Amino acid sequence: MDLLNAMQTFEKVAELGSFSQAALALGLPNASVSTRVSQLEDRLGVKLFARTTRRVRLTDEGAVYLEWARRLLAEIDEVEDRLRGRVHKPRGRIRIDVPASAGRHVIGPALPEFFRRYPDITVDMGCTDRAVDLISEGVDCVVRGGAVSDEMLVARRLGCYKVITCAAPGYLARFGIPSSPEVLGEHRAVNFFSAKSGKVLPLEFMLNGEMQTVPMSSQVGTNDADAYMALALQGLGIAQFPRTRTVMEALAAGRLVQVLEPWRPDDFQMFVVYPRNRHLSARVRAFVDWIVEVYAELFGELNGDIAGAARLS
């Protein structure tokens, strides 16, 4: 058995979820694909796929093996690229994970330019707001907001968003405009809670020279950034947003109003993060360098206010 060919075949079946589609993609007879996977299973002594007449799915052992196989195949590709002098033409697959909102509004719309620049790179982009274990999940890099404290990770700073406090006009008409953070006990917040811990992240304000949280009542909370904004737009409470293009457009249109401006929270830092102890392949380095460019342009655009943005304090 050619182990490398067997691993490549296994990866393609797992990717497409079909032996016949994998055979078509690899230009092989169906029987050859089945034989290679069976020989690999015999070698490992486990079943990699649960097969039925309608579908093929990975077993638990298969899912574990897939992560290691992808990692090993990626390293082999990288070694071959270097030996062939092709390091300046990166190719292969990378796995990334980005915040759902960033995937929709920033990174996804920019990807066509990345593919024009690097046509031989394939990207698997997860869009989640949860904490991702890059090592165990076989993820090459993630884009995340907030401090990175894990010493096993390298965090390259992308920039930071100013954070502003906002509410919908309908909410302010109903509850009034807060004059200072001290009166927020009479108001409601839209809660945002951590997808990892479930802990609510309270609103923060600079009070008496230090950052403090202010307890507020709330009827609704979410762990999704887009849903968080949607709830605030419906007038369900006061919320704090990174000053993204989407938020600034809502301010300019009068759908959100900035309040409590003198008590601005800390900036929201953005990073691209990858494992410290893993060799950074040419394709991952290409993505990291490109995403730094994307955010540099984005933050440059956001340096000035959008004309006509509503602001009350």
Break the fold down into its secondary structure elements and pairings:
Blueprint: H1 3-16, H2 19-26, H3 30-44, E1 49-51, E2 56-58, H4 60-83, E3 92-98, H5 100-117, E4 121-127, H6 134-137, E5 141-145, E6 153-161, E7 163-167, H7 169-175, E8 188-193, E9 200-201, E10 204-207, E11 210-213, E12 217-222, H8 225-233, E13 239-242, H9 245-252, E14 257-259, E15 268-275, H10 282-301
Helix pairs in contact: 1-2, 1-3, 1-4, 2-3, 5-10
Characteristic terms for this protein:
313 residues, alpha+beta, Arc Repressor Mutant, subunit A, D-Maltodextrin-Binding Protein, domain 2, 3 domains, five-stranded mixed β-sheet, three-stranded antiparallel β-sheet, 10 helices, disordered C terminus
Overall description:
There is one protein chain. With 313 residues, the protein is an alpha+beta fold. It has three domains: 3-83, Winged helix-like DNA-binding domain superfamily/Winged helix DNA-binding domain (Arc Repressor Mutant, subunit A), CATH 1.10.10; 92-159 and 269-301, 3-Layer(aba) Sandwich (D-Maltodextrin-Binding Protein, domain 2); 163-265, Periplasmic binding protein-like II (D-Maltodextrin-Binding Protein, domain 2), CATH 3.40.190.10. The chain is built from ten helices and 15 strands. It has helices at 3-16, 19-26, 30-44, 60-83, 100-117, 134-137, 169-175, 225-233, 245-252, 282-301; strands spanning 49-51, 56-58, 92-98, 121-127, 141-145, 153-161, 163-167, 188-193, 200-201, 204-207, 210-213, 217-222, 239-242, 257-259, 268-275. The strands form five sheets. It has a five-stranded mixed β-sheet, with helices on one face. Strands 13-7-14 form a three-stranded antiparallel β-sheet. It has a three-stranded mixed β-sheet with strand order 9-8-12, covered by helices on one side. α2 crosses α3 and α5 crosses α10 (282-301). The longest helix has 24 residues, at 60-83. The chain is elongated, with a radius of gyration of 24 Å. Mean pLDDT is 86; it is low at 305-313.
